[in-house]
Amino acid sequence: MVANEFTVDLRKALVFQVGHLGKAYQEWVHQPIVSKEGPRFFENNILEFLTRTVWWAVPTIWLPVVCWFVVMSLRMGQSLLEVSLLILAGIFTWTLIEYCLHRFLFHIKTESYWANTAHYLLHGCHHKHPMDGLRLVFPPAAAAVLCFPFFGLAKLLTTTTAVPAAAAPAFFGGGMLGYVMYDCIHYYLHHGNPSSNRAKYLKRYHMNHHFRVQTLGFGITSSLWDVIFGTSPPALKASQKKN
Questions:
Q1: pLDDT score at 238
Q2: On the CB side of 201, how many CA atoms lie within 13 Å of its CA?
Q3: What torsion do the CA atoms of 226, 227, 231, 233 make, to the nearest 10 degrees?
Q4: 142 sits in which H/E element
Q5: CA 195, CA 182: separation in Å to the nearest integer?
Q6: Are 178 and 94 in contact (CB under 8 A)?
Q7: How far apart are the two ends of the chain, measured CA to CA in Å?
Q8: Are 116 and 19 in contact (CB under 8 A)?
């Protein structure tokens, strides 16, 4: 736990400690501590509360919002078939967003005090404490803030293409549904006991990312984009060659 003469004290609030690790932060944060009991982040009880989210809060809060956006497109004149296709397009688009966020933002290299602190809050805590069930899904308040730019992007796509404006809500709703599926699947991969072959594969794939090769295997709900962009872990590449 000692790096560059700084020791992280796991008995104290962590967030404002980790920045002091400097260049050693990357090595420290990728040495997981396997425990269902998560660490304390902040001394302030309100801030600490805001960092903890039960998994079922995600579908409870966001599925009604998904339905609202879908109904909006129907009321604006889109047919049921068109809305269904837009939802599927939104889900598919989310898988690419998921991959890009995980690869290029969540695994960005940091060294400075505030960059390390921000990274730990964003994703580093999940790699350091991968079984912390209350810090696995995205906090609703943070997700709500991100809704605005993503909905703006959906509207921009409709204004710069031949797609009617009525398509934007359903497309955005599909993307949001993809996000809900992602967070629920992610939680299940850490804490569930899958029985189907597909679920077992995804669990092995994601645990490989946490405990073996943390610089590869960025897909959570699908390994598709890892295959396309060449970031599949070695075991997957080997199995593909055999096939």
A1: 46
A2: 11
A3: 100
A4: helix 140-159
A5: 19
A6: yes
A7: 43
A8: yes
Query: Is residue 127 a contact partner of residue 206, using CB atoms and an 8 Å limit?
Result: no
Helix (H) / strand (E) element for 3: namely strand 2-3
CB atoms within 10 A of CB 8: 20
Using DSSP's 3-state secondary structure scheme, residue 6 falls into: strand
Tokens 């920045």 found at: 19
Rounded to 5, what percent of the chain is helix, strand, coil? 65, 0, 35
User: What is the dihedral sign for C-alpha 197, 199, 201, 203?
Assistant: negative
Pair 218, 209: CB distance under 8 Å: yes
DSSP state letter for 33:
-
Q: Name the residue type at position 167.
A: A
d(CA 94, CA 87): 11
In sequence order, the β-bridge partners of residue 7 are 2
Contact 18, 29 (CB under 8 A): yes
Q: How far is CA 186 from CA 74, 84, 204, in A?
A: 31, 24, 12
pLDDT, tens only, 13-47: 999 999 999 999 999 999 999 988 889 999 999 99
- The predicted pLDDT at position 1 comes to 44
8-state DSSP, 138: P
* Residues 42-53 pLDDT 10s: 999 999 999 999
Q: What are the distances in angstroms from CA 33 to CA 125, 139, 225?
A: 10, 22, 28
**SS3 label, residue 2:** strand
